[in-house]
Design goal:
Elements lengths: L1 E3 L6 H6 L2 H21 L3 E7 L10 E2 L11 H19 L3 E7 L1 E3 L7 H11 L3 E4 L6 E2 L1 E3 H12 L10 E3 L7 E2 H12 L4 E4 L14 E2 L2 H5 L8 H18 L3
Parallel strand pairs: 1-2, 2-4, 3-12, 4-9, 5-8, 6-11
Antiparallel strand pairs: 7-10
């Protein structure tokens, strides 16, 4: 079996240079699937993303929602990757799982809002600049819960006629960027003041709000141990500890 977790995860860089996502997100998937065909590897487990859905506001997002209209180049290449996975599933794969991740947090952290806030406060302890107006609201899943979900659902046999797509995350649960900023400040620099932007999103291609419907995974027997707030608070502590010992 092959677990394909690699991709460009820097959405902003992919917006500035679409070649990055084409090469590091789509072509990696395409080439690995060809490798499966060549070497008769029948099981393929793919890390996709909530970015494939596009912007649906606060409407709970289910696996059968459509049409899928991603608003970032990253999301577009993840959706293209899903399409080529299904083609391979029809032709030469015996088993396929497509896991659509929410925002995943924890350590080791190389990017993301929590690390960004911590590094900003270390450089400027009295103020924290936030991209967007802080109303952005998203689902967060701790990496420990993510790995447990991947392993659990990869070993579950699909119900007859069911598709192999699973949303992973806390069910219809989210936390606002403003709340994350406040929690980071509380730990890192309690006297800092937050400076918000004016937009309802942080960058081009950013989906400002989404809530995951994860009832399908729940019906197969899996749910995370932490909700979005719990995952974020644990990760803030983990990433802050990491930042004190690692130079980025």
């Amino acid at each position: 079996s092959i677990w394909h977790l690699a991709a460009n995860s820097d959405i902003v860089s992919g917006t500035e240079n679409p070649e990055i996502d084409f090469r590091d997100t789509f072509l990696t998937t395409y080439n690995l699937l060809l490798l499966c065909k060549k070497n008769k590897i029948g099981k393929f487990y793919f890390a996709s993303s909530s970015a494939v859905y596009g912007d649906h506001g606060t409407k709970p997002i289910t696996e059968d929602l459509g049409p899928l209209m991603p608003i970032s180049n990253y999301g577009a290449m993840k959706l293209a990757s899903e399409a080529i996975c299904f083609s391979a599933y029809e032709s030469w794969l015996d088993d396929l799982r497509i896991f659509r991740f929410p925002n995943v947090v924890g350590t080791p952290a190389t990017h993301g809002v929590i690390l960004d806030f911590i590094e900003k406060l270390k450089n400027s302890p009295n103020s924290l600049s936030v991209l967007g107006n802080g109303s952005q609201e998203k689902s967060y899943l701790h990496v420990k819960d993510l790995v447990a979900g991947l392993l659990f659902l990869s070993n579950k046999k699909l119900v007859k006629n069911d598709n192999p797509i699973f949303n992973l995350g806390p069910n219809e649960d989210s936390i606002k960027i403003k709340e994350i900023a406040e929690e980071v400040i509380k730990l890192v620099s309690p006297k800092a003041e937050i400076e918000f932007g004016n937009e309802d999103r942080g960058w081009v291609g950013d989906v400002p709000k989404f809530k995951y419907d994860c009832n399908k995974a729940l019906n197969y027997g899996w749910s995370p141990n932490m909700n979005s707030r719990e995952a974020v608070i644990l990760s803030i502590n983990e990433i802050y500890s990491q930042s004190l010992n690692v130079n980025f």
